Amino acid sequence: MLGMVGAGQLARMTHQSVIGLAVQLRVLGGGPIDSAAQVTPDAVVGSWDDLEQLEAFASGCDVVTFDHELVDPRLLATLAERGHVLRPGPAAQRYAQDKLHQRQQLAAAGFPVPDHRAVTSRDDLLGFGDAVGWPVVAKAVRGGYDGRGVWMLPDADAAQRLWDETSAAGSELLVEEHVPIVRELAVAVVRRPAGEQRTYAVTETVQSDGICVELVVPAPVPAEVAAEATALAERVVRHIDGVGVVALELFQTADSLVVNELALRPHNSVHWTIEGARTSQFQNHARAVLDLPLGDTALTAPAVATVNVLGPADGSDPRVRLPAALEVPGATVHLYGKAARPGRKLGHVTTVGDDPTETRLRARRAADLLTGEGDQR
Ligand code: ADP
After folding, report:
1. Is the full-model pTM beyond 0.90?
2. Which atom of ligand 1 is found nearest the CA of 145?
3. Which atom of ligand 1 is the closest one to the Cα of 181?
4. How far is the CA of 269 from the centre of ligand 1 (A)?
5. pLDDT tens string 241-289
6. What SS3 class is residue 73?
7. How far, in Å, is the centroid of ligand 1 from the Cα of 187?
8. CB contact set of 299 (below 8 Å; sequence gap of 6+)
């Protein structure tokens, strides 16, 4: 029995991916409306914040994996000490749970990361901006996602305001240089416990307001940049002893690559692998954590594109516009069954093809039809 803590869309798509292997997935979620709980017969309603409930869940599973990085590290450590098999393990998960730890450890190991500083006082924050030059970027050490917990600080006044807010709320911060990004890339590696690993094609992640809106595969970068990104990701994943899918978000600058983020779970930046790779990230994650042979990560077509379906501003549910989107040739629609809210990730659309521009436009068209933006065109 494979257990997944969390019952969001990642667990839902993991469940979908292992049906053909007759692997039973049990998910731990908040309630029956959770994305994965809607489709998985074995959904346990419970809290991953509570040791007793977490341990009861883990006791029924051979291996426990995760669809988010929010489980308290102390609870993870206790479960591991008590003999539950957690993949990835607590030490590896810490890289995704604690941005400061991630920056510091990767920097110490010689990996390229943005110049950064821990913020324990107002002077740390303002002094860093004065030293490296404004703007700078402040980040919550824990719990940020989709641009939440990331603040672009143009000047000392903005930094002062942020300090007043966050110190009052007691949240821990780090500050880092504002990287002159040319392009954002992601590389996903999947790794078994003994170290066998495979890597997916380099992805360009197109961001809008801190949210990833589109994936372009293969990333339109020179072959040497793709090779460097791949090698960097593979070295990082070995270094942190990741198990399962590890997705690295990288910044490409004019002359280098910098590691921005890591996720130790299936990740939005490689949702394209369901149609665009011979084995999806979801099935490969399950195979890796169950210590089964990994599947081929090669592309299924010369060009792959994914467009995220974000909740429209009017709060309407993309499901009502499904028929129009399904008219778009070769567009595969994934809706996560989540309640519609403006800006919320509700699904994605993937297309594969021979021509990158045509492939991308088709995915965009289907996604726009789902959100209603296609109506006006
Ligand atoms: P999240 O955990 O919310 O995904 P990220 O650290 O990935 O947060 O930041 C979200 C986005 O903010 C990035 O995709 C990038 O566009 C921008 N960003 C983050 N850090 C920096 C930085 N140091 N310099 C420039 N832009 C940044």
Report:
1. yes
2. 3
3. 25
4. 14
5. 999 999 999 999 999 999 999 999 999 999 999 999 999 999 999 999 9
6. helix
7. 16
8. 201, 217, 218, 276, 277, 278
